[in-house]
Amino acid sequence: MQKITRLASETAVYGLGTIIPRLINYFLVIPHTRIFNAEAYGVITHLYAYAGFLNIIFLFGMETAFFRFASKPGASVDHVYRLAQTIVLAIAVPVSLVLWFSADAIAAAWDLAAHPEYVRYLVGIILLDAVVAIPFARWRQEKKAWLFATVKIANVLALVGLNYLFLYVMFDPAVGVGYVLIANLLANSIFVVFQFRNLVRWRAVWDAAVSREMIRYAYPIMLMGVAGMTNELFSRLCLQWWWPENFRGQSAEHALGVFGACYKYAVFMNLVVMAFRYAAEPFFFAQASDKQSPELFARVNHYFIIAGAFIVLAVTINLDILKFMLGSSEYYEGLSIVAVLLVAYLLMGVYYNFSVWFKLTDRTHFGTWFTVGGAVFTVVGNYVLIPLAGYHGSAWVTLISSAGMLVASYLFGQRYYPIPYRLLAGVLYLGFALALIGFSSQISFSSQFAATFFHACVCLFFLAVVYLLERKDFKKQLV
User: Fold this and answer.
1) Which of 88, 372, 389, 443 is positioned for an S-S bond with 393, CB 3.0–4.6 A?
2) pLDDT reported for residue 7
3) Band of residue 39 on the pLDDT scale cut at 50, 70, 90
4) Domain span at residue 171?
5) Which contacts qualify for 358-361: CB closer than 8 Å, 24 or more apart?
6) Is residue 452 pLDDT above 60, yes or no?
7) Based on the structure, what is the number of domains in the chain?
8) What secondary structure letter does DSSP report for 248?
């Protein structure tokens, strides 16, 4: 239990550096949806979807490779760090230059021919992220969680301040959504300032044997990341391609803006998953040699599902308040997809837990197959369902794809690295949360105060039930 407690405390600290900054960043949806209509907000959604893919390619799976090779017996952390940074920059810098000089053609292909500067801003944002990614990974490996959190918070505070400065003080319609990108680019420069010492001390190195091993280990993870990003972001790209003309009286640009804004609510789950991964990835590698690690990993996943089920419940039943974060009622029509996306992100988080087996056994190619399969399903599913159900179809495709990857990883994992996961208990906790959501949706109130009080009581009821069912296990682990 001490190890789980330590993991929970590190997750909480990383949460300060991921959840809190991203939540603050999330609140930018308020000025963005007030300043920009759904069509303009769709441009932002579209651009950041491409950024997600490019970020995965630039990093090439080197964060995970760094943790794996730095944790091997007799490994030099400094040497592995320099190798990982060398590989990342050898990919990121040339690709960034190509994209920079191709900005006009790319903007035309994205229906943004009048604004090639948007592409250049985006390339700068992604390049800065890549430059500091391995230094941040080293902080995680060195357990510098508080330093990590401080820098991330400083970045997002600058981002929010710059957004409000540009949109409310300096706003020029000719620049438009370009202000959002400029603010992000300037805010990311803060990372370089904090990592300046590490960056100037770095020297490019190449170790023929180790570098090849790291690339061989990492490229399936990169492919897995691209496929995973397809599962997460592809719907925000293809919605414009496959949305029937005037479907339900909406343009594709309007639908993308609504979908992108309502997708933001899934950030509540996504950020918990992200904070957990920051802490759990080095934790899993550190515990791999312990004979009790399978039982430990199973217990970690069990508590993760409980926490995730609570978030699904708390966010969904409080959408009657959270919807006011959107700047216009034109976005409300998409709120029905929020619960589906929250569950999808929870299942993806469980999949990340299940994926520990192929990372620890150096069978990362399995992860590639799982996520490629999920990506193929995502593409085909969106092609079929968008014309029939619009962005609701996209949301369900995301959930089903995540569930399929989870099941595949579990089945193969039990063969190569058996872990005694408490699957039935996890399903029941999630089912219990969904049942409470269904029950709450059938009750209406005349006042918002009464509704909010009732929803708080429902959340507390869920926690009380969890405590009653889990208290024996808690006490057993503390003994």
Assistant:
1) 389
2) 53
3) confident
4) 2-478
5) 358/409, 358/412, 358/413, 358/416, 358/417, 359/64, 359/68, 359/284, 359/285, 360/284, 360/285, 360/288, 360/417, 361/416, 361/417
6) yes
7) 1
8) G
